[in-house]
């Protein structure tokens, strides 16, 4: 079967790997240039890593990622309020390192075509896609079309043009610096600082032996982020972040002083209900295109990996394409639905005062370990 995959992120590349393993001919199309780095980093738990290894995605190199041992919740003064041991094998890593590992696991004839995006879909009888139009004017034909284009998926907009996907109230600034001193301070722990008044938090974790990723979560209603003007984005973002957390405990001020704010990313996640189904005819959605999850759930990457595996398993059991995609859609919606509710619950906790009430545990083990590898939770400090 010929498969056209739109998007060469984690979900798209994992789908290409799992479907190629079944003998399907996969063609991946990515709108970004090959060498353009998007995103920063994330955490993978042992279950997700096992799935990757099971399909030949090698992450065992000591240069890839950093082992994580404990989660440390701190107040803005740096005092540890709560500490939790993480499952053995948990690992933080740069997004670029995971994408490179996924690319290495692809055969040469499945290498993505870069700087080309999905521009439109042509439907024929029975709601089947007969061809897809790319941004460069090329028309392609396939038996199966897979959208892994992220939260702004054109395919999802075609399937559900009126589906409401408002911005989430909590947004994030994300950056990365090279600082071996802070790597040593992190000591294989994931540290998260919280404002006593709620509505602001700063996470710090090493993503390899030399680099540290930081992110600041904030209530965008109380603290509106600067508008993108292109002329002074870097200066405006630096001033915004320093106003929020610049006087917090070290190493926060130090890593901010090392940050190139022209490379800081403002993440505006969506707060959307799950769409009614993840497929129609021979078109299927994976990753954020199917289910944009709250960052509080820590499920985005693991869900993308699981989508690729579940899609291949559904196609393998058949008996026909429509039945297989319906099974994939039903199973993944059921597995993702609790995280939509969980994300909203955790958002409410985050927006309320933290100290003496509740704090977020962003790496608590999932309530559904067979399909989901980690999620946030909340625990009362009293």
Detailed description of the structure:
The chain is of the alpha+beta class and about 375 residues long. The chain is built from nine helices and 21 strands. The strands form five sheets. It has a seven-stranded mixed β-sheet. Strand 1, helix 1 and strand 2 form a beta-alpha-beta unit. The protein is globular, with a radius of gyration of 21 Å. Mean pLDDT is about 90; it is low at about 365-380.
Radius of gyration: 21 Å
Q: N-to-C terminal Cα separation, in Å?
A: 57 Å
How is the biggest beta sheet arranged?
A: 7 strands, mixed
Number of helices: 9
Order of helices and strands: EHEEHEEEEHEEEEEHEHEEEHHEEEHHEE
Principal-axes shape call: globular
Strand content: 25-35%
Largest sheet, spatial ordering of strands: 6-5-14-15-16-13-17
| Helix content, binned percent | 25-40%
Oligomeric state of this protein: single chain
Structural class: alpha+beta
- Compute the average pLDDT: 88
Question: Would you report the number of β strands?
Answer: 21
Low-confidence stretches: 363-382
Descriptive labels:
globular, 26% strand, 30% helix, alpha+beta, 382 residues, disordered C terminus, 7-stranded mixed beta sheet, 6-stranded mixed beta sheet
